[in-house]
Amino acid sequence: MLTVAWTGTDPIGLFAHLVGFDGLIYAQDDVTARPQPGGITLTQLRLTPRWESQPGDFALFVGVSGQERVQIGTVRVEARPWKPYTAHSTWRRVGEQTLIGYDWDNTLPIPRLYLHWRTAAGYTAEVHDLPDGRFTLPTGREVTNDGRFYVPLGQGIVWAGSTSLGDGLAPGDLLTVRQTFHATRPLVRDVGMAVRLIGFEADGFTWAWLNPDPDNDIPALGAIPTLKWIAGSTISHPRQLTISPEAVAGQLVGGSVRPYDVFTNRPLPLLDGRLAASNQPWLPLPRGDR
Whole-model pTM? Predict the structure, then answer.
């Protein structure tokens, strides 16, 4: 967490970046800061390193929207102390580290492969984006895309996808979207997953309608509060949603999942840099036709 002290009379857009030696952004926060009636205003920004980052020193930048950012220091990123969830456990020593598992993610059109490593300092992830869905592990074994989903979130949660919305939907239809989550450690804050349906225009991108945002959408219908998200648990979260009466024949219907802190309503970080840096920073549900 970074606290910025500033003076001014108008709202400003503040941002903070954590930047690697390769010039890429590995954590980011953007806020609209509003000034106090007088004196100094304190604005807090939060940076969570994405899984693409490796242990080492990163440059910390702050800036105001429309202006050049300024480096104010460096931040040391360490290996994670907790073992990640993996659907493909393995144990193979490679040099000074051990490959403990791998996982495919098909949330976006280009499949992503995570390799999970155990090192002397903790656990790290190696990330590969693979259009052909094939990869040869350091052990010499070739693996192919298994069609699964794997998106790391804040607090050690992994989103493992949801059931398809299906086809042949009609306005007013009630459908159940069932998501799956894995907890790699106990949670310290209550987490909700706001699920919404989206009807798209013919371009497949512009929204034609959007379901209301649910309040306190707690996984497992509220039966899994924080203290029951124990390390190694798998959580199933069914959510009933209604196709909007505004839907029209042939319309593409998708959806979004917005992880958030129940008490503050702040978004939970998406630790896949492709999602976190996109103009639609949420978990997309598989689409279907009305």
Answer: 0.89
